[in-house]
Amino acid sequence: IQVFASRQIKNEGTLVGNIVNASPIADSLPFLIVIDSDLELSSIKQSNKKIGKRWIKINNFFRGYKQLNMRSTELITRVRLKIPEPEDILKLYKVSKRKDLDISTFTAGIMIGIKKGKIQKARLAFGGVAPVVLRLLKVEKFLKGKPMLASIFKEAGILACKEISPISDVRASSDYRFNLAKNIFQKFFYEWQEEKNNKKAA
Predict the structure, then answer these.
(1) What is the widest separation between alpha-carbon atoms in the chain?
(2) Among 74, 69, 89, 57, which residue's Cα sits nearest to residue 22?
(3) pLDDT digit string (tens) for 50-89?
(4) CA gap 48, 165 in Å, rounded
(5) Are 14 and 3 in contact, with CB atoms under 8 Å apart?
(6) How many Å apart are CA 40 and CA 42, to the nearest integer?
(7) Of 60, 97, 122, 127, which one has the greatest count of Cβ atoms within 10 A?
(8) Which tens digit of pLDDT belongs to each residue from 106-119?
(9) How far apart (Å, rounded) are the C-alpha atoms in residues 110 and 163?
(10) What's this model's pTM, rounded to 2 decimal places?
């Protein structure tokens, strides 16, 4: 995808505008993070007017709240998306006060790859629980090699609460966000189980 945005010029209604706005509740970021996207940054060197380009993992792009690994002379010129494998399970979640056209209270991207009944790949990204959209690396490590059981995902939710640091604000309390982060794993598991059972029935 070829797109353009800088720190100074950004439109939150576009994909790259959503990225450079660097909000911890940006709707696109959990998806882009769990699929391990790359960003191309381009800049014009003032001395010889040559365009310099570099690629950076989106996971390394956010340094803190509204802090980017991006120079003032750079634009995001391309986003490289890595399409999930056919056997991967990818689900995206958004919680807000209104169903439509509302700022998120909590967001999540969960991608699980299963082989022979066990989790071989786990990528998790939560928004609204830290100064940036957070990759839950400790929970990912816990899930790898585990069977697809409700008890495993319940434990994953408990572990997730040790990895996040949500605050209370006008949208929700920190306790509410902790509960969302914990319970989203159960929601993911039971949705997967229902879809699996429906496929068998068909």
Answers:
(1) 66
(2) 69
(3) 678 999 999 999 999 999 999 888 899 999 999 999 889 9
(4) 46
(5) yes
(6) 7
(7) 127
(8) 999 999 999 988 99
(9) 15
(10) 0.87
Token reading at 149: 């059981």
- Under the phi-then-psi rule, with left for phi > 0, alpha for psi from -120 to 50, and beta for the rest, what region is 163? alpha
Pairing of β 74-80 and β 88-95: unpaired
The answer to whether 69 and 57 have CB atoms below 8 angstroms apart is no
Among residues 110, 78, 74, 70, the alpha carbon closest in space to that of 94 is found at 110
pLDDT in tens, 82-110: 999 988 999 999 999 876 667 899 999 99
At residue 116, what is the residue type?
K
Q: What are the φ and ψ backbone dihedral angles of 116, each rounded to 5 degrees?
A: 55, 40
Q: What strands lie across the sheet with 51-57, from one edge to the other?
A: 2-5, 74-80, 38-44, 51-57
